[in-house]
Amino acid sequence: MSDVLDRIAAYKREDVAARKAAVSQDAIEARAKKASAPRGFRAALASRFAETGRPALIAEIKKASPSKGLIRADFDPPVLAQAYERGGASCLSVLTDGPSFQGDDAHLTAARAAVALPCLRKDFLVDPWQVAESRALGADCILIIMDMIDDALAAELLAEATRWGMDALIETHDADEMARAAKLVEGRDDALIGVNNRSLRTFEVDLATTEQLAAMSPEGALLVAESGLFTPQDVARVAKAGARALLVGESLMRQADVEAATRALLA
Ligand SMILES: O=C(O)c1ccccc1NCC(=O)[C@H](O)[C@H](O)COP(=O)(O)O
């Protein structure tokens, strides 16, 4: 039986085929060219880390997930984006996948318009066409999930992101994926490598994943610890392992006062 990640990949391929049939490559590129200029996503994380010596926060706008179901009923992306910005986030991550996360492309455009922060389009990319689509929506960074695609497609997505002036967060979860990611960014000085503490196949979360993989992260890459971060102690643990940025969704999304919770997590 296929697991969640395989099911997501399957429906994404169908969805993208339908989107491409409706909007050609030329048409999506014309839209991408009209989008507001990319905001430096990696640069924002690097400069916050350089200023404070502490990991910078990528705060996630996440309504629901396959592992947790509904996370936040009172869900207003621009209001949440502003609370995150006031609370000290350096960047946003906005889920745009509908079937599994109750996300929407409009969440990204509305959140980005409400703040000055760079935004990651948090979605499952299985076709280079989606990179231009992401830029057309205003995204400043895309996500490349190594577990979901082969090396050739990962290289194409990364090249497309670079062509559009966007950053790419390259997500890994085990040693093999980290080795593939390191090869992918060989010779680059702008790598942004994520370690997801959650298995996207079993949903098991373990912060030891960051501790184990950090040492394998290529030199010069900015390391992002993703998922399962709830307390300042969790933050200190992944920082000690070498994380220079954090990607946090659920623990902040569950709080009534998102701005205060963001401040408290970073305190
Ligand atoms: O969150 C899930 O259940 C999930 C399931 C399948 C694929 C991806 C999934 N999440 C994406 C993420 O990586 C997280 O949204 C992100 O790292 C924030 O995690 P958290 O702080 O634990 O909400």
Automatic annotation (TrEMBL):
Pathway(s) served: Amino-acid biosynthesis; L-tryptophan biosynthesis; L-tryptophan from chorismate: step 4/5
Family listed: Belongs to the TrpC family.
Name of the molecule in the record: Indole-3-glycerol phosphate synthase
Entry annotated with the keyword Amino-acid biosynthesis: yes
Uppermost EC category: lyase
Gene Ontology molecular functions: indole-3-glycerol-phosphate synthase activity; phosphoribosylanthranilate isomerase activity
PROSITE patterns in UniProt: IGPS (PS00614)
Gene it is expressed from: trpC
Catalytic activities: 1-(2-carboxyphenylamino)-1-deoxy-D-ribulose 5-phosphate + H(+) = (1S,2R)-1-C-(indol-3-yl)glycerol 3-phosphate + CO2 + H2O
EC numbers, comma separated: 4.1.1.48
GO terms, biological process: L-tryptophan biosynthetic process
Keywords: Amino-acid biosynthesis, Aromatic amino acid biosynthesis, Decarboxylase, Lyase, Tryptophan biosynthesis
Indole-3-glycerol phosphate synthase domain span: 5-265
Superkingdom, taxonomy of origin: Bacteria
Species of provenance: Brevundimonas naejangsanensis
InterPro entries: Aldolase_TIM, Indole-3-glycerol_P_synth, Indole-3-glycerol_P_synth_dom, Indole-3-GlycerolPSynthase_CS, RibuloseP-bd_barrel
